[in-house]
Design a protein that fits this description.
The complex is a heterotrimer of chains A (258), B (498) and C (307).
Chain A (H helix, E strand, L loop, with lengths): L1 H20 L31 H37 L1 H16 L2 H12 L4 H28 L2 H8 L4 H12 L1 H24 L11 H8 L7 H28 L1
Helix pairs in contact in A: 1-2, 1-10, 2-3, 2-5, 2-8, 2-9, 3-5, 4-5, 5-8, 8-9, 8-10, 9-10
Chain B lengths: L1 H19 L9 E6 L14 H7 L7 E3 L5 E3 L2 E6 L5 E6 L13 H13 L13 E7 L2 E6 L6 H6 L21 E7 L3 E6 L12 E6 L3 H10 L4 E5 L1 H6 L5 E7 L2 E7 L9 H10 L2 H9 L4 E2 L24 H10 L7 E7 L3 H16 L3 E7 L1 H10 L5 E7 L5 H5 L16 H12 L3 H17 L4 E5 L1 E7 L2 E2 L15 E2 L2
Parallel strand pairs in B: 1-10, 1-11, 15-16, 15-17
Antiparallel strand pairs in B: 2-3, 4-5, 5-7, 6-7, 8-9, 9-10, 11-19, 12-19, 13-17, 13-18, 14-18, 20-21
Chain C lengths: L1 H23 L4 H6 L5 H11 L5 H13 L13 H36 L3 H16 L2 H15 L11 H31 L2 H8 L4 H39 L4 H10 L3 H29 L6 H6 L1
Helix pairs in contact in C: 1-12, 5-8, 5-10, 5-12, 6-8, 7-8, 7-10, 8-10, 10-11, 10-12, 11-12
The chains are: A mainly alpha (258), B alpha+beta (498), C mainly alpha (307).
């Protein structure tokens, strides 16, 4: 299973890399061949502007992967940090940080994204990354906090304390490896959620700016053509599913091995 | 135990929600219309959204009102007299005009309505075009208005002063007007219901009841049509109409009566150089924009005027700049940009037609070496940054005239005009504009307006694209849609065949 | 008491943050209200009428004191009292969220356990694929797909009409599907790793019934992280309804939230944010309580210790 995941992800990754170097057609070039079905010259057909869908998927894959990976990495890093500290120490540190956690969860994502966009400038994929990372912190923090809290009272921690290990050492050398059973699936789910969240923001009009492509943006564009150009929805939808599928399989496999 | 309480709670809630709004099966004397945005204020002197004005056109009337042919005819007034010098207008109140609450319309109601719009009192929005009024008074059943200077656009301004009762309380929640339809109920973000006003002075509406369903997503509108939840949706894109089952719907084509263009901030470098702007005009293939982003629907424009204002429309300006990328490159080189430059097009993300047009325009500009990138912003940001603060390079939007006057379209390009968001500044233009606004003679004024249009084209003020097509999907058994040269939907003629 | 304090604190914090965010976001509420026709003079007049010319802190305190006296203010774009506007929307959203959450809990936990119990090579592959596909489909897309299939094709509900039960059911399902898939996967993987632990192996090798061990010990231990995940999910549900409400034409809070942000309608947005923070805190508290009940060893944070 893990192998299949690695193969799928690798293929998509290569496709994205290839897309950043060269695509069969320019991913933004418009033409009069609008909404053509798949054919020899356009393997996945063309969209409503006559743009080559394959080329756009290759570019979009790159954008979406970058956004999702950066988001999950930042969110998981900060979330783990917060979760570790709050779960391990408890007390006022926990209370203060968890209130902020609640605040971020309650803060409307859409407003947050708008805010970041007006601070960073519109259209940049990094404003999406920053906004989504912030949104993703509480999720990781909460899961890790519970995990740390339940581990902190286990015997091996107490004996480690008795042997003179420092708090930081316990948190990150002893406990962190033990949280992997939760962290790894959380990472894959996080990756999945990041892809969905990016699509949601695109749907609301604050993702990447056209004519650039991201899978989420293409999906929200193509769903309006679901009847007149089903191949468009299908090819974009399948790519998203494959992407998340591949990463999910790797995550699942890693856990089984651990 | 807990589980039980929980599930009972859910069931109770659901029952509540589902019972509260039961859809009756479609009665024949009801037509449902899908609209893409919620209505804002229902106070006719305060509403701002074009979509609200479009529908409340059926609830409120002024002393005069527009016809589908673009003429202005008496409404709440039965006649209008204009004095020889053009400074005095006398409106005679029509007999037997009633408000929806059953009260007769009196001259005091008219005076109240005018004063409310002139002063902006009682939280009404001030109507700038009424500033020419020097005095307004009642004389029997007549209203006499004196102007400080002659104005050919005065009746158009009167058209937008909707008459409301002077003693109305809470017009926001219970709007009362004199139109063929009256307000019945409203559910925010969900629906608005209008019913026929049986004591209407004019031709009565053909259908008893209209329900406007608010569905903000373009897909939701298509689905609602296809499912039978609504019968009519206007302002669709051709992509949307293609999703519909053609056996069930007629697609009517009108025009939106607006000037869609790549509007340029003329004060910003390098766009302050006329050669650059001309190059951009030559670089954009307007026909291709319409073909690629609008499926071929739309009328190519060459200046800030559209054909439905036939009186003012100058057809020969349309092809002033032919599509010629080589010429565009030459002009850019001449302007000192042989390798082109980078620019941004700021577009409001909720207006898909403008986003789509920008997408194609950006590609064409790239062909001649101008590296155009698109910035999507939300409507609030667009209004603030682009329209008010003029902090932008270029934008794609549509400019319309809500009172059927050329002035509304052309005055905004005067150097000192408040809403000149393109920062267009041209001495000749300002001179002719001042002349035109002061000109009492209609024929001479029309010529001056045409000169203004020519000036805009010759100086390549903006890259004019098109007057967008208004595609309306109508269920096959519903008829009676009439297009106006205004952004209104007249429901009084719409009916379902039995 | 502690919980009320926690609630109050979060609400204050979030409302302050959103208030501040509106200061930083470009866009002027007055301009948005007046549209393109307004003059600067008009804008100024309206600004002072609404008190928007006063300093930020002053306005925030004015708003907070209003909330304490039960006055949520007047919506800028509708000119109606906010409580009147939001009442019915909150009910719709609550129904949607509860329905969706009920689906998530009632489907994912049995399914997660079943997916552990019944494993086999082919079954695993099929399960993985179905699970992944469910996880990967954005709710707005499912919304459209369901509207076409169940609404227009099978005529189970009428897309675009006033939403009834079936309509809400499918909307809730769209929101629930990816989350069900996630919960199933999380539950399964925690069960698997728990089963590999020494105490379980010992218990089984001593001849205890496998499924009894699963029920008595493993499930309890695995549920802890699943429940905090569910708590977080519950907290996020209101936000997740936004796009589905838009696509399926359901008049709930999510749509109102987006439109209030787009129109810079602060009073409406602030009120919705209050509701959201209430919801978030509540789901956090519930998750903590349930966890402490299942496993008393976890004494989470201050609140937990006091209880």
């Amino acid at each position: 299973m893990k192998k299949a995941g690695i193969i799928i992800t690798a293929i998509l990754f290569l496709l994205a890399i290839a897309g950043s170097i060269r695509t069969p057609y320019s991913h933004t070039a418009v033409s009069y061949d609008r909404l053509q079905g798949p054919s020899g010259s356009h393997l996945l057909g063309t969209d409503n502007f006559g743009r080559d869908i394959l080329s756009r998927i290759m570019k979009g894959l790159g954008t979406t992967m970058t956004v999702a990976l950066l988001t999950v990495a930042t969110g998981a890093l900060l979330g783990t940090l917060i979760g570790a500290v709050t779960g391990y120490y408890g007390g006022w540190v926990d209370r203060v940080l968890m209130r902020f956690n609640d605040a971020v969860t309650a803060f409307p994502t859409f407003l947050l994204a708008l805010l970041i966009v007006s601070l960073v400038g519109p259209g940049s994929k990094y404003s999406v990354v920053i906004a989504l990372s912030l949104v993703f912190i509480p999720g990781f923090a909460r899961v890790m906090r519970t995990e740390y809290a339940s581990l902190a009272c286990r015997n091996f921690v107490i004996s480690a304390r008795l042997m003179g290990a420092g708090h930081l050492r316990i948190m990150f050398c002893y406990l962190l490896p033990n949280t992997m059973r939760v962290l790894l699936p959380a990472l894959t789910i996080g990756f999945n959620n990041a892809v969905l969240a990016e699509a949601g923001l695109s749907f609301l009009g604050i993702g990447v700016s056209p004519p650039e492509a991201s899978l989420g943006y293409m999906l929200s564009e193509s769903q309006s053509l679901i009847v007149s150009a089903p191949w468009y929805v299908l090819s974009v939808g399948l790519t998203i599913i494959l992407l998340v599928f591949g990463v999910g399989l790797i995550g699942e496999g890693s856990r089984a091995d651990a | 135990m807990k589980k039980k309480v929980f599930s009972i709670l859910i069931i109770a809630l659901l029952l509540l929600v589902s019972c509260a709004k039961k859809d009756a099966s479609q009665p024949s004397d009801e037509v449902r219309i899908g609209v893409a945005q919620d209505f804002d204020s229902l106070d006719p002197h305060h509403m701002t959204a074009a979509g609200t004005k479009e529908i409340l056109f059926n609830v409120f009337e002024g002393l005069v009102k527009p016809t589908p042919e673009g003429e202005i005819v008496p409404a709440v007034a039965s006649s209008v007299e204009k004095s020889e010098d053009g400074l005095t207008y006398t409106f005679t109140l029509r007999d037997g005009v009633r408000f929806h609450d059953g009260m007769d319309v009196s001259v005091n109601d008219v005076l109240y309505s005018f004063r409310r719009r002139m002063d902006g009192k009682d939280s009404a929005a001030k109507l700038a075009s009424l500033s020419v009024i020097e005095s307004i008074e009642a004389n029997g059943n007549r209203i006499v208005i004196r102007l400080s200077r002659p104005s050919n656009e005065f009746l158009a301004a009167v058209m937008n002063v909707y008459i409301i009762p002077q003693n109305c309380t809470d017009i926001e929640s219970y709007p009362v007007g004199t139109g063929p339809y009256m307000f019945k109920s409203r559910t925010f973000q969900h629906s608005l219901e209008l019913v026929r006003f049986d004591e209407y002075w004019g031709k009565p509406g053909k259908t008893e009841k209209f329900v406007f369903r608010i569905l903000e997503s373009p897909d939701a509108l298509v689905l609602a049509l296809q499912s039978g939840a609504v019968d009519i949706v206007a302002h669709l894109s051709s992509d949307q109409t293609k999703q519909l089952d053609s056996d069930q719907f007629n697609i009517l084509t009108g025009s939106m009566n607006l000037v869609q263009a790549l509007y340029i901030n003329n004060a910003e470098k390098p766009f302050d150089n006329v050669l650059v702007r001309k190059a951009m005009c030559h670089a954009v293939d307007r026909k291709a924009v319409i073909d690629l982003a609008f499926d071929g629907y739309g009328i190519i424009l060459g200046t800030s005027m559209f054909p439905s204002f036939a009186k003012y429309y100058v057809d020969e300006l349309t092809d002033y700049y032919e599509y010629n990328p080589q010429k565009a490159k030459d002009l850019l080189a001449q302007a000192g940009y042989p390798n082109g430059f980078s620019m941004t097009i700021t577009v409001p993300s909720n207006y898909t037609p403008h986003v789509n047009a920008a997408t194609v325009i950006a590609e064409m500009l790239r062909e001649v070496g101008i590296n155009a990138s698109i910035q999507l912003v939300d409507w609030g940001t667009w209004l603030d940054q682009v329209y008010t603060k003029r902090n932008y390079q270029t934008t794609v939007t549509g400019v319309s005239s809500d009172n059927m006057t050329a002035r509304k379209l052309l005055e905004r390009f005067g150097t000192t005009t408040g809403n000149n968001f393109t920062n267009y500044s041209n001495k000749d233009y300002d001179r002719i504009l001042a002349q035109a606004l002061a000109e009492p003679d209609d024929a001479v004024q029309t010529q001056l307006y045409k000169a203004l249009e020519r000036n805009l084209t010759e100086n390549a003020a903006n890259v004019y694209i098109q007057d967008m097509a208004d595609l309306v999907a109508v269920r096959k058994n519903v008829s009676g849609i009439v297009f106006y040269p205004l952004y209104v939907l007249d429901i009084s003629t719409i009916c379902r065949e039995k | 008491m502690k919980i009320i304090l926690r609630l109050l604190l979060t609400m204050l914090l979030v409302s302050f943050l959103t208030f501040a965010a509106f200061e930083a976001v470009s866009g002027d509420p007055v301009r948005t209200m007046l549209g393109t026709e307004a003059t600067e003079e008009q804008a100024q007049a309206l600004r002072s009428e609404l008190g928007l010319d006063r300093p930020f802190i002053q306005r925030y305190f004015h708003w907070v004191s209003g909330v304490f006296t039960g006055n949520l203010g007047i919506s800028y774009s509708y000119r109606q009292s906010v409580s009147l506007l939001l009442g019915s929307k909150a009910l719709v959203s609550l129904a949607l969220c509860m329905l969706s959450f009920a689906m998530i809990v009632l489907i994912s936990i049995p399914l997660g356990l079943a997916s552990y119990k019944y494993s086999g090579r082919i079954l695993d592959v099929v399960r993985s694929i179905v699970n992944q596909v469910c996880m990967a489909v954005p709710p707005f897309f499912t919304g459209i797909l369901f509207s076409w299939i169940f609404g227009i094709g099978l005529k189970l509900f009428i897309p675009g009409s006033s939403p009834g039960f079936v309509h809400l059911f499918f909307a809730a399902l769209c929101i629930a599907i990816p989350r069900i898939a996630m919960t199933v996967r999380l539950l399964r993987s925690t069960v698997v790793s728990e089963m590999n632990k020494a105490y379980v192996r010992t218990a089984i090798s001593r001849g205890n019934d496998r499924s009894a061990v699963l029920r008595k010990h493993v499930l309890k231990n695995s549920l802890v992280s699943v429940i905090s995940f569910l708590g977080q999910t519950l907290a996020e549900l209101v936000g997740a309804t936004i796009v589905v409400e838009q696509v399926m034409g359901i008049p709930g809070l999510g749509r109102f939230l987006v439109s209030s942000i787009l129109h810079r309608d602060y009073p409406v947005n602030q009120a919705i944010v209050l509701i959201l923070s209430f919801w978030v805190v509540l789901s956090g508290v519930i998750a903590d309580l349930v966890n402490s009940a299942i496993d008393p060893r976890i004494k989470l944070s201050g609140e937990g210790r006091q209880l």
